[in-house]
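TL;DR need C-alpha cells for one chain.
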Amino acid sequence: MKPIFYDCKTAPSPRRARIFLAEKRIDIETREISLAEREQFAPAFLDINPHATVPVLVLDDGTALTENLAIATYVEAVMPEPPLMGVTAKERALVSMWNTISERDGLFAFSDAVRNSHERFSGRATTGTNAYQQIPELADRGAHRLARYFELIERQLEGREFVATDRLSIADITAFVTVEASVSTGRGPNADHTNVWAWQKRISERPSAAI
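>> reply
TL;DR here they are.
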C-alpha cells in the first residue's frame, strides 16, 4: 500500500499540509474529499478518520495521521531536507512556538469568527461530527483575537524574512494560510500591516503556494 493524502482544495487546514508536502517536493497519491458535499461524513471516509476532518495522511502500513502537526512531524522525520521544523534545538523550539501561536491566535480565531457567523455553518460551528450551534459572541471574540494576531505578526516580522527563523518553516505555512483565508473572507490585515503584506507576497511567490 502506498501513502495516500486526503485533501480538500477549498479548505485552509489541508492547504497547510499540501504546502508542506510541496516544499518537501513529495509526489503523493491524493484523494479529494469535498467538504461542501459533506463527503467527510461518508462511511468509507469515517472508517479512515472517525473525526471527519481533513487533512489525513494514510501511511503504507495503514496508519492514519489526522492532524497537521502529526503529518508534518512524520514527513520531517523521514525526509529531513529541506528542514521545515528547525535544525538546532533553539530553532525547533522557536518554530514550534510560533506555529502554536499562529494556530491558537490566528487560525482558530479565524475559524471561530467564520463558523459562528456564516449561514453556511449553521449547526456546524466546529469541524468534526458534533453538530454544535453557532454562538455570535464567539464570532465577535474570534474577530477581535484575529485582529490582535495580525498586530503580533506585524511586530514579529519587523526586519525579518520569515516568522520563526532565518528560513521557511511550518510556522510560516500556518501563518500564511491564516492570512490567506482571512483575506478571502474580508477579515485580513489592514493597510498598516506592511510587514505582513510584504511577507505574504514573498511566500505567495513560492511554487508551493500555487498548488
